[in-house]
Design a protein that fits this description.
It is a single chain. The chain folds into 3 domains: 3-106, Cation-dependent Mannose-6-phosphate Receptor, Chain A, CATH 2.70.130; 121-175, no CATH class; 177-206. 30% of the residues lie in helices and 31% in strands. It is built from 4 helices and 10 strands. The strands form 2 sheets. An 8-stranded mixed sheet has the order 1-2-3-4-5-8-10-9, with no helix packed on it. A two-stranded antiparallel ribbon has the order 6-7. The longest helix is centred in the C-terminal third of the chain and has 24 residues, at 182-205. The radius of gyration is 24 Å and the shape is extended. The two termini are 42 Å apart. The relative contact order is 0.10. Its main location: Golgi. Residues 117-216 form the DMAP1-binding domain.
Length: 216
């Protein structure tokens, strides 16, 4: 995400409403503590730092998920980032059962470009985004196709968490040695041969014997 927001890491901000004290620790978690003398006063986690909320190619909030269990699901919190004179937790609500909404004010998001996603990406991902823009402009992809590419870019950048199926697919891709084309296979083979040669050279430099096999 935006590097200038990392200065909030390691800090916590609290907000008290009636008998509850809420604490937001950016890039860490959100907690709630019931400040009463009841024997079963609730004190727990409303969400752990998970991913960004991105809207119109802008960071608009932080999702804290996988909090304490609540009936059949886990508690989760969306933290809205808004411009303010100082860093402070300004408002807390529970729009639906066990889904919380926090408003965090900070001067760090007051600049109109402070929450743009594009500048935070690597050059390779920026290129991918530029290509998608061009395809959309040339009407070679639909709006839906464009959004799908953007979502993949954000997932690759680690801004959004891929779904479990996507993660499994990624893992499987890593472990299979199948190639879509002979050209890809040859390219990979050349790359591996280079790496093996480097490793062999390294071993001989250190006087370590290398036992190869016919299937190397």
């Amino acid at each position: 995400g935006p590097a200038h927001l990392f200065r909030l890491a390691g800090k916590c901000f609290s907000f008290v409403e009636s008998t509850y004290k809420y604490e937001f620790c950016p890039f860490h978690n959100v907690t709630q503590h019931e400040q009463t003398f009841r024997w079963n006063a609730y004190s727990g986690i409303l969400g752990i730092w998970h991913e960004w909320e991105i809207d119109n190619n802008t960071f608009v909030g932080m999702w804290m998920r996988e909090g304490d269990s609540c009936e059949t699901k886990s508690r989760q919190t969306k933290v809205h980032l808004v411009c303010g004179k100082s860093n402070k937790l300004a408002y807390v609500s529970e729009p639906s059962t066990c889904v919380y909404s926090l408003t965090f004010e900070t001067p760090l998001v007051c600049h109109p470009h402070s929450l743009l996603v594009y500048p935070t990406l690597t050059e390779a991902l920026q290129r991918k985004w530029d290509e998608a823009e061009q395809l959309l402009y040339d009407e070679l992809i639909t709006d839906q196709g464009y959004k799908k590419i953007l979502k993949e870019i954000f997932e690759e950048a680690g801004l959004l968490k891929a779904t479990e199926e996507k993660e499994l697919e990624k893992q499987n891709k890593k472990t299979t040695l199948e190639f879509e084309t002979v050209e890809k296979c040859s390219k990979e083979y050349k790359q591996l041969s280079k790496e093996i040669k480097k490793l062999k050279d390294l071993l001989s430099q250190h006087g370590i014997a290398y036992k190869g096999n016919s299937g190397e």
